[in-house]
Amino acid sequence: MTYESNSGPLFVVGIWRSGTSLLYALLNQNPQIALLYEGDLPLLRPLFKDGKPKRDWLERWDFWNGAPRRHNIDVNAIPENVTDIPSATKAIYEKYAGLAIWGCKSPNYYDSMTKLAETFPTARFIVIWRDPRDIVRSIIRAGEKSSWFRKTGMPLRAILGCRELKKQCDLLQSRGIALHQIQYEEMVKDPGAAMMGVCRFLGIAFDSRMASLNNADRSAIYSAEHHAMVKGDKIDPLRENGEVLSHRLKRKIERYIGFWHEEYGGNWPAIPVLDSENSATASWLERGLDRLRYRSLRVFDQSVLHLYCRAPLWLLISYRRVKQYRGASAPRPLVKAAGEISKTTRSYQEAIPMRATPAAEMSATGTSNQSVHRGAL
Fold first, then answer.
1. Residue 367 domain-assigned?
2. How many folded domains does the chain comprise?
3. Is the terminal CB of the chain with fewer CB neighbours within 10 Å at N or C?
4. Peptide bond connecting 269 to the previous residue in cis, omega within 30 degrees of 0
5. What is the pTM of this model?
6. 62-76, 84-98, 107-121, 332-346: least confidently modelled range
């Protein structure tokens, strides 16, 4: 291959359960694209405060969501002179991708894309949208098997998260930042057409493999039941059936959709068609109270992130032991040269991934045994 890497990263973003994992798998079918799966390193800014990275920042990143292990990243290949988030992210992600387009797919960027654009001035963004009702339905179904999706306030996070993501997209467009948006319902109906549009946006040739999950490398994706479709070989738009939304929750979502339709002149959200009998829109009081609760949830999320970046690692490991899954085995530690594994890192052998991580829950063993995509570090 002689194609050149682009000058900046590519970030693929959407609300949880909106099809970001499927989009990631299809994108990485093209040999000119090599994205990390929920690497999330740019979110861990407290690890690089004032240009002085914490000595154990790699261990903490791995402890946060297992990204180095899931992508088989050899930490010995990471330059020692990284001093901030941009240099660390570029060094690791670009090395992983080789000559291909480098970047990351993660729903956790949904309310921080403008900050990413400031950190990486040449970044490009792909955003995927889905009917908010189906997003919440999928979250509820995933919550039947995953404690992370069962945690307090996930439906509200998703509902108001859609509006936050829209604000971020509007800001990116107003600043002239490269942004491509696709609709989940259209992607699963005609993946080839959707991927052709992505390739035109990226300025690369379309690869027919992008229209299928056959032989797609999904080794970095968490092994969990809610990833059953993306782990399979068939894109099935009718896979999820049956109503799981309560009448009250469905009406709330539709009130917000109605309000957003009024706000955007019917242009956003693009897909939902509301029930004719539900013409009410979210009132200022409902929006205000929901907003207060949403902000408190996001403050909690950020507090957890800062705790993981700053608290003694031995304490975090001890806490994780307490929260471990019943009968789960331990994840593998970071791969280091002989004699370089610290006592703290050895403790990973007795700890398991924590449920509070913003990424979807990891499998009990960390990564799958499938082959690693592209040239791993």
1. no
2. 1
3. N
4. yes
5. 0.85
6. 332-346
